[in-house]
Specification:
23% helix; five-stranded mixed beta sheet; alpha+beta; disordered C terminus; six-stranded mixed beta sheet; 28% strand
C-alpha cells in the first residue's frame, strides 16, 4: 500500500476514496466533485495535509485534515476518515491514524479534534486507542419555527460579517469546527443589545435560498445568550432571522409612502413563512 496527499491525487481518485470510504455509513454523505470542493474550501481542510491510501492504483481510504489557531493553540481537525468496505478490519484504520498523528506532530499541533456519531462504537474505540477522549456531546436539531410579529423585548440588532465576531470579547472561540465563523464565511452574524448598549447575545447563521429566490431554510450554527437571566429572549433572537421587518415608514420618494400601517403589516404577514432551523451545536 502507498500513501499520497490529496494534493498529489486527481479529483477523481479523491472522490472515489471518499465515496467508497463512507459506503454503508450511518448517514448518506456521498459527494459530487462540487460538493467535495465546497467542503474542502469551506471548512478550511488542507489538501497537502490530507491523505489517501492506495492499494496498487486503487484509492481505498482517506483522511481529511485542517488546522486553525483556537484560543492561542494550534488545533487539528479530522474532517473525515473513511475506508472502503473491502478493506475494513484489515489494519488500514491503524495506518490512517498513525499517518495522521505523524502529520500533527510535524505541524506541532497542540490539540487534535474530531467528531464521531455515537452509534459508531468501532470508530470511537479506535480513536480512544490513539489518545482521543470524549470531551463534549453535539446535538443536531431540526424543526419548524413559526415567527411572530409581536416583540417581547426591546432589542437592538447589529448585523455583521462572521469574520468580525472574534473582535468582540464575549465571543466564544472554542466551538465545534463546522460551527466556527471560519466555516461559515458565507453566512451572517448578529449581535443583540439592550437600550443601554449592553450585549445580550449573538448568533451565527446561514440563509439558504431556493431557485425561486425564496428562503428555504436557515442553518443556525451558534446562538449564545450571555446571561442566564436573559433566556426568555431566545424567541426574539430567532424572530430576527425568521420574520420580515415591520416597515412603518417607506423611504423618501417611494411611491408606496401613502400606504397605511395596517396594509404594510398584512404584507409582512404574507411573507412571514415558517422556516426550518438546524441547530448543529449547543453548549
Amino acid at each position: 500500500m502507498k500513501i499520497k496527499t490529496v494534493s498529489q491525487c486527481t479529483l477523481e481518485e479523491v472522490l472515489k476514496a471518499w465515496n467508497k470510504g463512507f459506503e454503508g455509513y450511518f448517514v448518506e454523505i456521498n459527494m459530487t466533485a462540487e460538493m467535495f470542493l465546497h467542503r474542502l474550501v469551506g471548512e478550511g481542510l488542507s489538501p497537502t495535509h490530507s491523505i489517501v491510501i492506495f492499494d496498487q492504483d486503487e484509492p481505498i481510504a482517506i483522511v481529511l485534515n485542517g488546522f486553525r489557531i483556537v484560543n492561542g493553540k494550534k488545533t487539528a481537525w479530522n474532517g473525515g476518515t473513511g475506508i472502503s468496505p473491502d478493506y475494513r478490519g484489515k489494519g488500514v484504520s491503524r495506518l490512517l491514524m498513525e499517518e495522521a498523528l505523524a502529520i500533527y506532530e510535524r505541524e506541532q499541533v497542540e490539540i487534535a479534534t474530531l467528531e464521531a456519531i455515537k452509534e459508531n462504537k468501532v470508530a470511537i474505540a479506535l480513536y480512544e486507542k490513539y489518545g482521543y477522549a470524549i470531551s463534549n456531546q453535539l446535538l443536531y436539531l431540526s424543526g419548524e419555527y413559526e415567527g411572530k410579529l409581536e416583540q417581547t423585548a426591546r432589542i437592538h440588532i447589529e448585523t455583521i460579517r462572521p469574520e468580525q465576531l472574534p473582535q468582540f470579547p464575549f465571543y466564544q472561540e472554542d466551538v465545534p469546527w463546522q460551527c466556527s465563523w471560519q466555516s461559515v464565511k458565507q453566512g451572517e452574524a448578529k449581535i443583540f443589545y439592550n437600550d443601554d448598549n449592553k450585549a445580550l447575545g449573538y448568533m451565527l447563521y446561514k440563509t439558504i435560498w431556493n431557485d425561486s429566490g425564496e428562503v428555504e431554510r436557515i442553518l443556525l450554527y451558534q446562538l449564545e445568550i450571555l446571561e442566564d437571566r436573559h433566556q426568555n429572549l431566545l424567541p426574539s433572537f430567532l424572530e430576527s432571522v425568521t420574520t420580515c421587518p415591520v416597515i412603518k415608514e417607506w423611504p423618501k420618494g417611494d411611491n408606496r409612502a401613502g400606504t397605511d400601517e395596517k396594509a404594510i403589516l398584512s404584507k409582512v404577514v404574507k411573507y412571514n413563512k415558517s422556516i426550518t432551523l438546524f441547530l448543529v451545536w449547543t453548549q
